[in-house]
Structure formats: C-alpha cells, structure tokens
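Example for tutorial group B:
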C-alpha cells in the first residue's frame, strides 16, 4: 500500500519539475522530499526516478504512478464528502478564495446567505490572484475558489480540480475622455489606436499583466508601461487623471470616475468556481457553490455586474 503523502510528492514533482519546487510547495526541505520519494520508490520496488543532469526526472513508471495519484486523491475527497453528508447540520471551516473584484462584488452576498442558512460554518476568505488558486486548492489551503482566464490568455484546466462556469464578461479599454476620439478610426480593435499611450497594467506575473501585454502585441505594438497597479479602482483613478490607459473587465468598473471613457473590446474574461476534484459532493462545498452562484445572479440582475452586455 502506498503512502498518500508520498504519492502527492511524486505527483507534484511531475507537475513542478524539481525537488526544490516541491519542497517550496510543501514548506519543507529538499532533503525531506528526497527521503520521502526514496521511501516511495522502495515501496514500489521499481525505479520511479532517474538522474537527469543535476536534477531528477520521473521514469515512465513514475509518470504513470503520478497520473494514478490524481484519481486516488479525488476518490479520497469523494469519500470525505460521503462521510460529511451523513452528519447532521453543516459545521467546520470553509476556506474561500477569490480575486479582488469578486471579493468586492460577488462574495458579500454569498457570505451573508451562508451565515444565515448555515450558522455552524466557519467561513474564511482569502484574496489572491487567480494564478495562485490551483496551488492553494491542491494544498488544502482553500476549499472553494473563484478563478478566471481571458480568451487572450487561456488557462489549461488543472486535472486536480473540478470547476464550472460562473461568469462571462466584456473587457474594456479605459481611456481619458479627451482621448476617446482615437477610437473613431474605424478600427475593429480600439487598442490599436493607443500604441503611443502610457499603459497602466497589473503587477508582473499576474494574469491582468499578461493580458494587457498580449492585447497590445496583437494590435502590433509593445506597450509603454508607465504604472503597475492591481486595484481596478486605483487604475480608473489614474486613467481619469490622464496618466494612461488600461484594460478593465466589467466587474472591475464599479463607479466610473468622471473623465473616463470605456471602449468595449472583443476580448472576454471568463470566471469559474472551482474545488478539488471529488469534493463537489461535500455538503459545505456544495452550499458554498450554490451561494456564490445565487449571489452572482443577484449581482447581474441588479445591473451592476458582468455578463449583461
């Protein structure tokens, strides 16, 4: 019988590529990871790892075993969900992760409903960039999370997660009012008219940063990045002050400052709600998903959110 903790290390080595990266993900030392993987190899009785340069790589058997690990972990999640469903009432901690605009707009209604309908739940919210969500779910730092991608920067589905569509919204180019006339050049892409503008983008490594750069490159130029700001309210304030232009999704618009014009793009941002594969039957996870869906629908019906355009 294989140790599930060691199987997770093998799975993560296959995913992350180095012992050092696995150690960082599990907050332990590379030596400890190596020892556990060596013990797993002894349990298997066949080579799972091989030297490759200064590092290690999985053998074909190791790759196959890592692949089976996802199914094993999903089965354990499903087993936990079955046991939880047999209990009376919903109790325990539910850790919810979301990107900033969702925390401001979608989660408040969901948290109110969950607190009212399931007072035994201890709800915890973490704000984080969607790029960090899969790792946080895999490592049990989150139970349910919102993540998104753009058609300009699609993200491959994570085999460790189950997810379902939640929201599809327009992306706008936010420009100072006096510069909006540049859009009149009959261009199918408003971004093309702002190749000489200063750009306000997200921090390097965030999805928003990647999308802004790709949108500009698709329009035929590299953006002249002047400001790096992650909060869309602050971004729009800078645009209103004439400090540059920026891409803003519908959910990030909020109260539009005076002096800002929004030019709709063909690009879309797609939000999904995710949890670990197999955990969808857990009553607390299911209740959280239902609450977020209902809060999203209410937000859209109020006319303040995305997806109505």
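The residue assignment follows.
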């Amino acid at each position: 019988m294989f140790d599930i903790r060691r199987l997770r290390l093998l799975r993560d080595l296959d995913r992350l590529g180095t012992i050092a990266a696995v150690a960082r993900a599990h907050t332990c030392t590379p030596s400890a990871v190596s020892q556990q993987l060596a013990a797993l190899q002894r349990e298997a009785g066949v080579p799972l790892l091989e030297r490759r340069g200064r590092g290690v790589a999985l053998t074909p058997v190791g790759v196959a075993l890592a692949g089976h690990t996802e199914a094993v972990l999903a089965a354990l999640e499903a087993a936990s969900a079955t046991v939880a469903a047999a209990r009376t009432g919903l109790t325990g901690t539910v850790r919810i992760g979301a990107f900033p605009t969702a925390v401001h707009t979608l989660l408040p209604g969901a948290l109110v409903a969950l607190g009212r309908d399931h007072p035994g739940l201890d709800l915890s919210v973490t704000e984080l960039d969607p790029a960090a969500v899969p790792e946080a779910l895999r490592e049990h730092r989150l139970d349910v999370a919102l993540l998104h991608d753009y058609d300009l920067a699609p993200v491959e589905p994570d085999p460790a997660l189950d997810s379902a569509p939640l929201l599809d919204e327009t992306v706008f180019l936010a420009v100072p009012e006096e510069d909006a006339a540049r859009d009149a050049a009959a261009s199918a892409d408003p971004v093309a008219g702002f190749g000489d503008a200063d750009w306000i983008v997200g921090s390097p490594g965030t999805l928003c940063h990647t999308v802004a750069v790709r949108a500009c490159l698709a329009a035929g130029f590299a953006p002249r990045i002047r400001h790096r700001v992650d909060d869309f309210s602050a971004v729009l304030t800078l645009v209103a002050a004439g400090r540059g232009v920026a891409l803003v999704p519908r959910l990030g618009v909020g109260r539009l400052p005076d002096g800002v014009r929004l030019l709709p793009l063909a690009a879309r941002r797609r939000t999904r709600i995710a949890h670990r594969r197999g955990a969808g039957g857990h009553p607390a996870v299911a209740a959280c998903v239902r609450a977020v869906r209902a809060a999203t629908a209410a937000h859209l019906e109020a006319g303040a959110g995305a997806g109505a355009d």
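The longest strand covers residues 260-276. Compare this with the pattern of hydrophobic and polar residues in the output above.
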